[in-house]
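User:
Hi there, any thoughts?
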Amino acid sequence: MDRDTLLVKVEKAEYLKDYQVRLTFSDGLSGVVDLKQEIWGEVFEPLKDVEYFKTFTKDRWTIGWDCGADFAPEFLHKLTLQQNPKLIIQ
């Protein structure tokens, strides 16, 4: 991971459907990420209910839920690139 990736943060987050969220990052990258496969483990258990999943909020750096679950912004950035290989950082 390069230095710029370590400093990336989520600027915008929009729920789309199921476990899909459109994310825009501070480096200009924007794309849809599907988090369904990332929802495992005790802290993420409540997110398996899609109605609860929809309730995420965006803080200064990333998205999170009232239960304490969140995803590191650099993880979301990497996942967005992996799931959308044709995206270009603007």
Notes: The first strand starts at residue 10 and ends at 17.
